[in-house]
Write a structure and sequence with these properties.
By secondary structure, the protein is mainly α. It folds into two domains: about 5-115, no CATH class; about 130-265, Up-down Bundle (Four Helix Bundle (Hemerythrin (Met), subunit A)), CATH 1.20.120. About 55% of the residues lie in helices and about 5% in strands. The chain has ten helices and two strands. The chain has a two-stranded antiparallel ribbon with strand order 1-2. Strand 1 and strand 2 form a beta hairpin. The two termini are about 30 Å apart.
C-alpha cells in the first residue's frame, strides 16, 4: 500500500491525536504502537515532536505491507470506547483524503479494513522472496553509506536487512504475516528453531559449534550496536568507519548463512 506525501502529512498529525480524530497518544505510547510493526525506537532526550515522529514513521512504512495494518489499528473501535470522538466522523474524514490515493476504510464486522477504490479489501502482501542477489544489493547500499561517511545509517540498514531475512524465513514457515516486536534476538530464536540450528554437541564438530556460537554473538552485538549508534536513536556512541564495516560484514555473513540453511532445509 502506498500513499501520497500530502496524505502522509495529514496522517502525521492525525494518528498521534493532535487533530482530535483519534484518541491522543503520548510519546511513549506512539513508540509502543510502532514497535508492533518492527520499529526499534526509544523515547527519551532528543525525541522529536509527536506529530513529526508519527509522520516520519508513516513515511518509513509507506509502500510496505505494514502501512495497511497501521491505518486499520489506528481506528480500532475499542480505542474509541472511552473517548468522546465519533469514529464514524473520523472514518469519513480519513476516507475523504484516502480516496485521492485510491483507498478507503471499509467496515467489516466490528472493525475497519483498507479497501481499494472498487471496494475490494487490500490483502497483506506476500513475502518478498529474498535471495542472494537481494542481499548483495542491500550490502552494496550499506557500503555506499559507509563511503559517504554515514556510518550510523549503514548500521541501521544492516540491522534492517537481518530483520528482513529473518522475518521472511518465519513468514514462509508459518504461512502468514507476523508482527515484529522490534527485538532482533527474538526473531533469531525463532529462525534457529525453524532451521534446526540449535547447538547440539552430539551432532556437530566442536569447530562448527564455535562458529554457530559466533552467529549468536553477531546478533546480540548487532542489536546492541544499532541501539546505541544507529540513526534511529539518539547517538550514544561515536561510531567509526571500522565499527560500521564490522557490523555490515558480520551481517552479510549471518544472513547469507541463514539463506543457505533455508535452501538446504528445503
Amino acid at each position: 500500500m502506498k500513499i501520497t506525501e500530502k496524505t502522509i502529512r495529514f496522517l502525521g498529525r492525525a494518528l498521534c491525536g493532535d487533530t482530535g480524530l483519534v484518541p491522543y497518544k503520548s510519546g511513549p505510547q506512539l513508540v509502543d504502537f510502532f514497535v508492533n510493526y518492527g520499529a526499534d525506537d526509544q523515547y527519551g532526550e532528543g525525541f522529536p515532536s509527536r506529530w513529526r515522529y508519527t509522520e516520519e514513521k508513516i513515511r518509513e512504512y509507506n509502500g510496505t505491507k505494514f502501512l495497511k495494518s497501521i491505518l486499520e489499528d489506528s481506528v480500532d473501535p475499542r480505542d474509541f470506547m472511552e473517548s468522546d470522538i465519533n469514529i464514524c466522523e473520523t472514518i469519513k474524514t480519513f476516507n475523504e483524503l484516502l480516496n485521492f490515493d485510491g483507498y478507503e476504510l471499509k467496515k467489516v464486522g466490528a472493525f475497519y479494513k483498507i479497501a481499494d477504490s472498487k471496494g475490494i479489501l487490500v490483502e497483506p502482501e506476500t513475502v518478498t522472496g529474498i535471495n542472494h542477489d537481494f542481499i548483495q544489493e542491500q550490502i552494496k547500499k550499506c557500503n555506499e553509506k559507509i563511503e559517504q561517511g554515514d556510518f550510523n545509517g549503514a548500521i541501521t540498514n544492516a540491522r534492517s536487512l537481518a530483520e528482513a531475512v529473518m522475518i521472511e524465513i518465519i513468514e514462509e514457515h508459518e504461512g502468514k504475516e507476523i508482527k515484529n516486536d522490534g527485538k532482533i534476538e527474538n526473531l533469531y530464536k525463532q529462525v534457529k528453531k525453524i532451521l534446526n540450528l540449535t547447538i547440539d554437541p552430539k551432532t556437530m564438530p566442536q569447530t562448527v559449534l564455535q562458529i554457530l556460537s559466533g552467529l549468536d554473538s553477531i546478533v546480540g552485538g548487532l542489536a546492541g550496536l544499532s541501539n546505541n549508534s544507529g540513526d534511529r536513536h539518539a547517538n550514544k556512541f561515536n561510531t567509526k568507519k571500522h565499527h560500521a564495516r564490522l557490523a555490515v560484514n558480520s551481517t552479510m555473513t549471518l544472513v547469507d548463512f541463514l539463506l543457505e540453511s533455508k535452501e538446504y532445509q528445503k
